[in-house]
Amino acid sequence: xxxxxxxALDPQDGGPERKWRRRALWxxxxxxxxxxxxxxxxQTSFYLQNNDLVARDAEPLTDVHFGGxxxxxxxxxxxxxxxxxxIPRDSAPVFVDFTVKIGDADLEQxxxxxxxxxxxxxxxxxxxxxxxxxRVDDMATCNSTVFSGAKTGDTVKIRETFVIPKDALETVVxxxxxxxxxxxxxxxxxx
Amino acid sequence: xxxWVFNVAALGAAAVVCYGMQSSKPRYKNLIAPIxxxxxxxxxxxxxxxxxHIGKVVFARELKVTEFGKQKTLTTDGLxxxxxxxxxxxxxxTRVGAxxxxxxxxxxxxxxERFSSRSDLPPISVSPGLPQRGLFLFELPPGEVEGAxxxxxHTVFSALDSQANIALDRVPLDSDGTPLSVVDVYDxxxxx
Amino acid sequence: MFGAIRGKVRAWFTVGAGxxxxxxxxxxxxxxxxxxxxxxxxxxxxSQIETGQWLVRPLRAYIGTDRVYDLPVKPDQQxxxxxxxxxxxxxxxxxxxxxxxxxAPPLGGQxxxxxxxxTRDASMTPAxxxxxxxxxxxxxxxxxxxxxxGELPLVVNTKTYKPQDNLYGTPGxxxxxxxxxxxxxxxxxxxxxxx
Lengths: 191, 192, 195
Description:
Chain C: Keywords: Membrane, Transmembrane, Transmembrane helix. The complex is a heterotrimer. Chain A is α+β, with helices and mostly antiparallel strands. Chain A has helices spanning about 1-10, 15-50, 105-110, 140-145; strands at about 55-60, 65, 70-80, 90-100, 115-120, 125, 155-165, 175, 185-190. Chain B is elongated and about 90 Å long. The mean pLDDT of chain B is about 95. Chains in contact: A-B, B-C. The interface of B and C includes residues 113 and 114 of B.
């Protein structure tokens, strides 16, 4: 009782209570941002691990190591005569073929949420859509490969099908996003 | 004595302020609520992921549809509201997954679940540059027609995402609130 | 000297008061808990019953085989069907009706959750819209060997609305509890009424 009273009444600047009060206030400057960072960390890492945010440019027709396997963009084709397909007017199908040499065989982990897409120069993007066609039937897709039981060293052919407006045909390039690599994704150049 | 009175008054004031803050505090539900983008039937309403424009609203007493090669008639005690809307993706492939008919008194009628999936019923998948016409089907009592708003959103639970709230035009009604334009049977395979 | 002892005694009493209060409250709660529970009321079977989210009117119960409203019943199984009229009392389309009716006591070997079917067109478990009355069928399936009673004992459950729940602060229906019980006569086999 008497001790603290004496300290509070101490005319000198460096009384221990004053000193600690100042230290506590400075502590807030560090602790508050630290607390905010700590609380935001989980959301931030969740955001980064679930979105394709940062593009890595890749060359077609070369092996690119991604998600534990070697990805090779073989080709990208469309069809002139689309009368047999039930797709909207002014749209065209795009078939994208990859050859993948499996490295890490734990595909359910490495290829989690596999997302192959097309993106054009203005940033519009397309996800695969289903087109009933002899070119596609029986072909493996990214997601079907995950559960195909492919082993290390196997080579898998993957074909994804897209329907995009004809005006985007000129500039679209394929992208590949895998759970184990996010936020990075592959963006192939036009060959 | 004065000091004592002042202390009690200060305590009372603090209690009132605290109570006011507690009762006016926004609930978690309001904090994460979807963000409405309002419009009318003449507008193309733009949300974060898709644009939507209502083409037509038809009221019917029965719906006819072919499911798995079998013709089926769906009856209701109220009315069927068939909303044909043009939906377009903005910059990426997305889906319009949920639609709600918001009645004049605030009752929320979700899209019907009595149909098997069709590509023109929600969830409707749309891609940039390839707009699509979707059908949104609701079952309602006649009194819910006047002054209704249609709500379109990406998913059923879309926290903090934008959703399209489109006020419906007035339609001529008879005495119990049934639109005069109601048709007896609406064939989903042959849209009006 | 004496002053110090008195101070000590006072401190002991002060510390002990909280404990004493806790023990008293716990004892009282225990005593009230041991009192015989009030019987849940027996509800009239042809009346409209108001639960939290629903207005229900039980219509009939029967035993079905082969097919109950498009729901196939296996050859070695039988289905106990309860048909009710239901109205959603809430402001939003909902399908929180799976535990509305429960077989109590359980008959043995039944499916955990009943299939709930809209009798109008045999849709499985559709959401019901506010204020729109529909006829629904609750279907439990049993092995054929289970003897079904002539009077079916059922429990009707209800829930309480909370404007904000303790976990997320969102509104919802919580704390399911028994509202009452009904007994439905089981019609032997109903061919009519099944579409």
